[in-house]
Design goal:
2 copies of one chain form a homodimer.
Chain A: H1 3-26, H2 33-39, H3 44-50, H4 54-58, H5 60-75, H6 82-99, H7 102-117, H8 119-144, H9 152-169, H10 178-195
Chain A binds a DNA duplex (30 and 30 nucleotides) through helix 1 and helix 3.
Chain lengths: 202, 202
DNA sequence: GTAATTTATGTCAGTCGATGACAGATCGCA
DNA sequence: TGCGATCTGTCATCGACTGACATAAATTAC
């Protein structure tokens, strides 16, 4: 990897970290892009070259997670029940988190705290989830050999999977460790599997 | 009702209708608040006194629907399985739509078309759904006599209910009638009930 | 019916997020 | 070293949104 891309990635993370800390200190709304840019000594214009919007910052880990999920989907046998596959994908995201740098984990936990403090941001994250859902539904339909426009079940499967994941992320405790989030998510997945009729997603 | 409130409601609907038509004509992003305000001959400032944001316009029917759902929840026997109750609430929204003025139905259908044309707006609507979900989860927890912070199942129930509703709203056909949307939704509800284990929500 | 009170509206100025255009700086490579 | 690609800052601009203040309308009290 060239020195250029290395530097770019470093700036990207610097912006992200500075922004998260500012958000946690003084709130999301009252932190301006100008401040964030100032903290890492770049021009506001450059900020928007790294993140398409201020909101985009909060969705950093979302993008990361989606990538891992899509990867997992591709690697799973196509005759596995779709919901099971999706739950594996969710677990893959968590495992990646467990194995990640302490810096990455730190970012994730801080973002979680940020979301708790600002319910408006949850909406934002969910909105991005709707986008992800569309892509996932298409993949699942392909696996099932159906047309996503006709096959309602593929949408339902994905919708329930994403819903399960979302419920799992909402931890009651404000300062939770990555391990705690993982444990909580496992509980939720188990609960979901107990709630659904065996073979419903075939 | 005083003349004041009457006039207010009329302006509110005038703004909404003008906006929707402009959106459909020239796209959501490229329609400015100034244009909308101009179309109904009010100042842009006044626009923001009727709708807190441009986005809020699109969520008009969402607010309407949420109100009906909450009402239905209150009127249902508290020993009914929660998911069943929620599905009744969804049906209540549809029934209200069927009985509504042609103007209201028209608005609803136009908004649906708008959402299809602008995927970004779907995210917005879903984001508002996250808000609704929180309120619903609290109600369901109260019915179940549990603490919403501890009881994961109440969140899962609501999340699945909302997910079901969302899947039902996505019709493949661009120009659908209210009846078609209702039929589609009924199918989806039936599918959901077939997918969930009996008694899962007790 | 008029006066007093409340509420709705318009105007103005200003903040903030976001984008396009251009110029200068930086990096990778021949 | 020098060329081309890419990155960055500056400037100008738009559009969403808000607060402050003055005016106009409707509601209420008398």
């Amino acid at each position: 990897m060239g020195l250029r891309e290395l530097k770019k990635e470093r700036t990207r993370l610097a912006i992200l970290d500075a922004a998260i800390d500012l958000f946690l200190e003084q709130g999301y709304e009252s932190t301006t892009v100008e401040q964030i840019a100032g903290a890492v000594e770049i021009s506001p214009r450059t900020f928007f070259r790294y993140f398409t919007s201020k909101d985009h910052l909060v969705l950093w880990f979302h993008d990361h997670g989606e990538e891992i999920m899509l990867e997992t989907l591709r690697s799973r046998p196509s005759d596995e029940p779709p919901f099971t596959t999706l739950m594996h994908a969710v677990r893959a995201v968590l495992n990646d988190m467990r194995d990640s740098t302490s810096a990455d984990a730190q970012r994730f936990l801080k973002l979680r705290r940020l979301l708790e403090d600002h319910p408006h941001l949850i909406g934002l994250s969910v909105a991005r989830g709707a986008d992800t859902e569309r892509r996932l539904a298409e993949l699942i339909a392909a696996r099932r050999g159906t047309d996503p426009d006709e096959d309602q079940l593929c949408h339902l499967i994905v919708a329930y999977a994403v819903a399960t994941m979302r419920v799992g992320f909402e931890c009651p405790r404000r300062d939770s460790t990555v391990e705690e989030v993982i444990a909580r998510m496992s509980e939720t997945i188990a609960l979901a599997e107990r709630s659904l009729r065996p073979g419903w997603d075939l």
